[in-house]
Amino acid sequence: MFEEHIIRRSRWYIRRLYSWFFNLLMQSYWDEIEDCKEKVFNKLSEKAEKVLEIGIGSGPNMRYYAARNANLNLLGLDPNPKMKKYSRKSAAKAGLKPKNFKFKQGVGEAIPLKDNSVDAVVATLVLCSVSDVTQTLKEIKRVLRPGGVFIFLEHVAAKDGSMLRRLQKLLDPLQQRLADGCHLTRNTRERILEAGFSGGVKIETYSMCSFPWITRPHIYGLAYKTRNF
């Protein structure tokens, strides 16, 4: 029993140390990706009254919503119910009214909303971790209203045959264990293009310079659902 206690405590300290060290190294990444996020959220129309964010987590994107439309109604979806209190705090800090933010536990593969119910869907660094990218994109299309937009920012697999792609493939199992199911080798760009967004897709690419270099290739952009006339 004593040995089991020591092992559990050791694992706890290792996780805490890893978390501290990883966050310290990641700061340059968060600083650099800020520019990409600004470009993505600048595409969020002021006419978007109801927005769904998949994988909202603790709410790091809250300030982008409040800065563009203080009356926007945001629904945050996340599989971890413990994120509710953190996302609410982030919403309040960003200036979103309590009545304008709701949290739902759920996953992108089965969005708990009716068809054609939101003006925009947002996913930033989320499609790398969902269990089924194709099903998630199908659900996004389903809940978007005609004229709606899907806004995304993701890290993706490097070019086939490149040294970076080979390293990603090698490190992918470790990445999934350490980063909550995050995949390094997903061809998310191709999955979005193949999803059949009726209004077309606009994708930009970006190569991150900051740590972690293994996730250097990024994409960001918009996918539209055609209006009904």
UniProtKB/TrEMBL annotation:
Stored Gene3D superfamilies: Vaccinia Virus protein VP39
Methyltransferase type domain mapped to chain residues: 52-152
A GO molecular function held by the record: S-adenosylmethionine-dependent methyltransferase activity
Coiled coil: none
CDD domains named in the record: AdoMet_MTases
Name of the protein described by the UniProt record: Methyltransferase type 11 domain-containing protein
Organism in which the protein naturally occurs: Capsella rubella
